[in-house]
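User: I'm writing a tutorial on reading structure tokens. Could you give me a worked example: one chain, its sequence, then its tokens, then a sentence or two explaining what the tokens reveal?
Assistant: Sure. Here is the example chain.
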Amino acid sequence: MVASTSTLSRWAWLTGLLVGPLAVLTVIIGITDNIDLVQRGTATLILIIIVVGLHVFSGNSGVISFGSVAFAMIAAYTSALITIPAEDKPSLFPDMPFFLTWLIDFSVPVPLGIAIAVVFTMAVAFIVGIPLVRLSGLAAGIGTLAFLVVVQVIVAKWKAVTRGESTMVGVPQETTLWWALVGVIIAISVAAIYQLTRRGRRLIATREDDKAAMSIGISIPIERLWGWVASCGISALGGALYGHYIASFQPSTFGLSLTFLVIAMLVVGGMGSLTGAVIGVLVLQALAELLRTVELNGLGPIPAFDIPGLVEVILALILLIVLIARPAGITGGREVTDWFRRRKSDVVEVDAA
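And here are its predicted structure tokens:
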């Protein structure tokens, strides 16, 4: 799949316009030396990776998936299992199954562990995706949600390998603000080049009019499978980085709350565009932090309030308002490059006049 010069140019513009401001903001956060701000910035960047991963499939195909967090979980546990120091594993996994005992003495550096986890997760996504990509609409959503539940149950009950409901501990805590930024650059670059190449355009065609796409020879299951595997790979990168960021986690860490937050961010920003995926995370994260600040300390004339769950309720109401008032999200499904092209066209028209 060779990209043309025009495609590479558009990819460079789209990637640069999205990554540039994020990189500047990350540098500003990094030089403040404010631990709390750095932690929030790192978490936001990791969320961007997972939401971008969801966009690659759901945004380009129009099929809502609840599975992105499941693959983030698989990658987080996989990377943890192969990066925890070998000397710590006998006490953490005393009942490791015989066919996995080699894991006890096996340990790799974190970057290699993340790479292995992403590749393994993509292999799982390929196998699972073969039947799932043949589903559409409500059936597809239920299918991916069922897969999320299956993964959570397996992780929660396979105590010998995953420690079950107990917290996975001993995971090297190596994800930094800069690691997260590198992950965002990789995720946005891959997502941008995918949607601009022939494979991505075919998948978008199936979203716009599936019958017309089939009439010109596009295989919907094959194109969705390509998008599904790429999407799960990006989500896996976010999940592995998240695991090495918090260093201790359990199945509930990757539960329905995170799943619906990721979907809400994509919907609010605009599911049909990569720009929307990034903006949705930034907007909802900023709003969530503002609401939590008001909840704890108040803001100006607004007093602090101690009502558990009110922040989540407010965010849910905002999601409903966006769905009703602007179903296409904040960006309307357009990319930041479209805005620049429109501005340039306006300038040309004014000059001509």
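What the tokens reveal: The CA atoms of residues 209 and 215 lie 10 Å apart. Residues 345-351 have pLDDT under 50 and may be disordered.
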